[in-house]
Design brief:
heterodimer, A: about 110 residues, mainly beta, six-stranded mixed beta sheet, about 55% strand, globular, B: about 110 residues, 11 strands
Chain lengths: ~110, ~110
């Protein structure tokens, strides 16, 4: 069974600071997704990482994938309050759309003044 | 991009009644539809996977007679919660799988009173 572990699960950080969320997974996969969820809302796609060494950046967020280490990171640069949300990583267990994503437990991020 | 339209967004029903949730893929063919439920402050839990024209595959512990899934076409899948009880209150999210990867609906907040 594919396991996906995120840490930390809760993160309170001050505006302007940097931090990294980690996503470890237990079996071979080269397809990893990051999502953002605001309270009461569904998932918003942030990044799709499709190969070893993939790095993608959007604004203050940057995601990377190391398939050999089975590790993805989501780095937050100079956090602002608008980034407060829950972030999920999800791993595609197979290269076919017939298999559901395996989600981590999520990281609840609160950015304070 | 690919869009999955999910309705209703919120529904309140009386205990013992049934509720139907619809998910339509608007600009792509969802060969597979995944149904999730999410309890407050928790991750997404896969309930079932359905492929167009065939019976859904339910995850362990999910009652197939209670959560009826129909995937009659490549653009429409429905989840019917039968004889709903307060413990069925949750946030339900569908996700279409196809050539564009995974696309999530906007979610349905079900409250059973």
């Amino acid at each position: 069974e594919l396991k996906v572990e995120q840490n930390p699960l809760f993160l309170s950080m001050q505006e302007g600071k940097n931090y990294t969320i980690y996503c470890n997974y237990s079996t071979t996969s080269d397809r990893l997704y990051w999502y953002r969820q605001d309270p009461g809302k569904s998932l918003e796609s942030l990044f799709v990482l499709l190969s070893n060494g993939a790095v993608k950046q959007e604004g203050r967020l940057m995601a990377s994938l190391d398939t050999k280490a089975r590790l993805s990171t989501l780095h937050i640069t100079a956090a602002v309050h608008d980034l407060s949300a829950t972030y999920f990583c999800a791993v595609d267990p197979a290269r076919r759309s017939g298999y559901a994503l395996n989600f981590g437990k999520g990281t609840s991020l609160l950015v304070t003044p | 991009g690919a869009v999955v339209s999910q309705h209703p967004s919120r529904v309140i029903c009386k205990s013992g009644t049934s509720v139907k949730i619809e998910c339509r893929s608007l600009d792509f063919q969802a060969t597979t539809m995944f149904w999730y439920r999410q309890f407050p402050k928790q991750s997404l839990m896969l309930m079932a996977t359905s492929n167009e024209g065939s019976k859904a595959t339910y995850e362990q512990g999910v009652e197939k007679d209670k959560f009826l899934i129909n995937h009659a076409s490549l653009t429409l899948s429905t989840l019917t919660v039968t004889s709903a009880h307060p413990e069925d209150s949750s946030f339900y999210i569908c996700s279409g799988g196809g050539v564009y990867g995974y696309t999530f609906g906007s979610g349905t907040r079900l409250t059973v009173v």
